[in-house]
Amino acid sequence: MIDLISLREQIERINADLKQGIDRLTDRSALEAFRIEFLGRKGRIGQLFRLLGQIDAAEKAEAGKLLNDLKTSANVAFEERRSVLENTILQSKIEEEKIDLTLPGVYHPLGHRHLLTQVQQEIESIFLRMGFDVATGPEIESEYHNFEALNIPADHPARDDWDTFYIDETTLLRPHTSPVQIRVMEKTEPPVRIICPGRCYRRDTQDATHSPVFHQVELLWVEEGLSLANLKYIIELFVHEFFGEGYEMRLSGDFFPFTEPSVQMHMRADRSSNWLELGGAGMVDPAVLTKVGYDPEKVTGFAFGLGIDRMAMLRYGIDDIRTFFTNDLRFITQF
Ligand code: DAH
């Protein structure tokens, strides 16, 4: 037999052991083992319940209540401890994975378009607004498109004006963008209104205004009734759009086999600076129109080829063309 007094004693011991042990537990499996020791099927509290049968009938209700209270409070104690434990585990995980937003980030510098690309795109947009299309042609060009079709036959001394890199007998790196005129006219019926910006190559000795790689923008307009006055107007309009006020421009007589008459174009930033040659222009020679199957009695045209690098130099006050191609970031990042 067991009486209420000794049952109470045992309950108190269990409570004391539980209280003492539970706060020391720092991980989930230790807590679970401890819980099984008290609340498991063969645990200490379960064993006490088994003693109920030995208790005097008069005290049974009281004993049952005591044991139920014990079970309830033990369950509560374990739940509380579990939530404290889960919370600490979570906190330390958060602590571990914490990102310090005040740390300086990893700097990835963002690039931008090279000044020459910016200038080329600006030129394109000016002419697109005037109703021109942008055409392209190959940088590795045939001798035919580069010279013959432009009215410069094989032994013509004018070929010497272009110090050309030849790839083989009939192929070369284009020394100007004019062959694109031919390529466009070969596959289009007039009217034709295009520009073609692009890279060109010449066997030039490098200096402040010459580079073996440089850029030109070609323009071609073929239609009925065009004259030199229209050419001058287009050039002036472009100069005004691209350079703005203050710049001076002049056209003077020149010779190109593919234009008649031909002019050259010079510009300067103001009266005190030197004239810089930007390129050539003229009325498309009837022989060129005939070569591509146009009727020079019906249509006339004008064209120009201007140096993009030189335009950029003039507008941004750059005095050496070579700085465009040396990839010095101190220069490139200024624009
Ligand atoms: N292609 C010539 C050069 O590079 C420039 C030029 C002159 C282009 C007259 C033209 C033109 O379209 O009509 O020197």
Could you please describe the fold and organization of this structure?
The chain is α+β, with helices and mostly antiparallel strands. Helix content is 43%, strand content 20%. The chain has 11 helices and 10 strands. Helix 1 (4-22) packs parallel to helix 4 and helix 5 (115-129) packs across helix 10 (308-316). The structure holds 3,4-dihydroxyphenylalanine. 3,4-dihydroxyphenylalanine binds next to strand 8, strand 9 and strand 10.
Q: How many helix segments?
A: 11
- Multimeric state of these chains? single chain
Report the portion of residues in β strands: 15-25%
- Give the overall form: rod-shaped
The span between the termini is 100 Å
Q: Structural class, please?
A: alpha+beta
Low-confidence stretches: none
Please list the strands of the largest sheet in the order they lie side by side.
1-5-6-10-9-8-7
C-alpha-based Rg, rounded: 46 Å
Helix content: 40-55%
Mean pLDDT figure: 93
Main sheet attributes: strand count, strand direction, barrel closure: 7 strands, mixed
**SSE order:** HHHHHEEHEEHEEHEEEHEHH
What ligand molecules are bound, each kind once? 3,4-dihydroxyphenylalanine
- Number of strand segments: 10
Could you write a compact summary of the structure shown?
The chain is an alpha+beta fold. It is 43% helix and 20% strand. Strands 1-5-6-10-9-8-7 form a seven-stranded mixed sheet, sandwiched between helices. Strands 2-4-3 form a three-stranded antiparallel sheet.
